[in-house]
Amino acid sequence: MTGSIFETCMAKFPDGNSTVLLECVSTSFEEAEEASLQDLKSFLYVVAGALIFFMQSGFAMVCAGAVRLKNVQNSMLKNLLDACGAAVAFYLIGNAFAFGGQDDISGTTVIGLTDFASVGPSPSFWFFEYAFSATSVTIVAGTLAERCQMTAYLCYSMVLAGFIYPVIAHSVWSNNGFLSNANTDLLFGSGAIDFAGSGVVHLTGGMTALLATTILGPRRGRFYDSQGEPLPKPLPMPGHSIALQLLGTMILWFGWFGFNPGSALLLTGNDHIGEVAAHAAVSTALSGASGGIMALFTNFWIEERRTGEPHFSLVMAMNGSLSGLVAITAGCAVFEPWAAVLTGAVSGWIYMASSWWLIRRRIDDAVDAIPVHMFNGVWGLISVGLCASPDKMELVYNTSKHVGVFYSWGRGSSDATLLACQVITTLFILCWTCFTMLPFFIWLNYKGWLRSDSLEELVGLDISYHGGGSAGSGGEVKKEYVDAYRRHRGRNRLTDSTEEWQSAGDLSEDPETGDDSGFVN
Known about the structure:
With 521 residues, this protein is mostly helical. It has helices at residues 5-12, 18-66, 72-99, 123-143, 150-173, 198-216, 242-259, 273-307, 314-328, 337-360, 369-387, 390-397, 405-410, 417-446, 454-459, 461-466, 479-489, 497-504.
């Protein structure tokens, strides 16, 4: 704009009366203010998206600390590939499937069909949503650590970010999604609430992790001996650095303040975005804190009853906090502080129970991502149907017709419409993910592209895939195993793995389990 608004209007209406000039000036001021607000909102999208993207560092540190030293480099590269694969896939097709062509008048659509190979009408919105998709993808990295092939991992990352996740995001978050509370044709007159992605992001990633690790199988020696017989007690495989795990947890918690409060920017027609973001930040802090405390002291109490020698488990506290953060993500903007504390506390118990259940089922999750993200993603969605506050619903969505069941009872009603929508959303995410990803992982496994070779797993994926690491790294890999692996690489095929290993030295004992009955895959 050249010159002042008044001068511009005078030039436009040189013979206009005062009413015309005032109307021109008023309109020009409104347009300038709207443009300024849009610029500010775009900038805040980038800031919030950057905080969410920084969570990739947190996931990387958690994974690096939770794996053994011989697999650190491989774990780091897989986390990097998450960000790379998700960016390409979300740009080419993911954004189009999730938000392409969304509007406020078309009603329900199954999937977006415009803006392929494009960032759409708003680059800042694309970046913000890309950060969410990359987060969902990287949840699986830790679960499959120490035994998954690189090719399979990149393939899965692109499929999840390019198709599986976008369909769910469209259904729940797009203005035209059948579950969306922004749709003109609301499900049961309410629509589902997943404010920042307990279901869309975390449940999707957690369910994918469960399917993947079930098909992939546990790490060598974790639940079975060298003959394939179940061990009387699972073999602990602690990570090499608790400090890295704590660093990663704190980075994730920090990034969550972009994840949850930043989602307030997506609200349209709301003049209280700052207040909504503040409530989301408070709920995020309280739930994460209560989840960590509850898991820490509940585990302390259980160990005291079982062994008489309790200890404070840092791993329990960290994963309890992450569980609380996952659970509050769906309802952070519509919860009162007491509900945030309750949600976090319950999430700590859910984490402990589901982690124990996975071990009982001999399902190997190297970083406990499934208990943290999948089970607490479900709890996060359900908790909205129980605890959504009328006052906060008015603030965020300008309606309190359907609220949490606890508040419905307080009104003397038994209205569970919102809870029904939350349950349907949960079932949809579980079914869609299972229907699409289970055949995909079965196919990868059938082709031999999913799991690393047993000898590669033995010497560590750093040596196998990256040439990094060395014999004796952290006392985990013997030199004769590395020599055997290098000779094996020179062959066109593995003819007799037992003879190969024994030719390198005394390999009669399985280094993972201590079983000396013969080291056979």
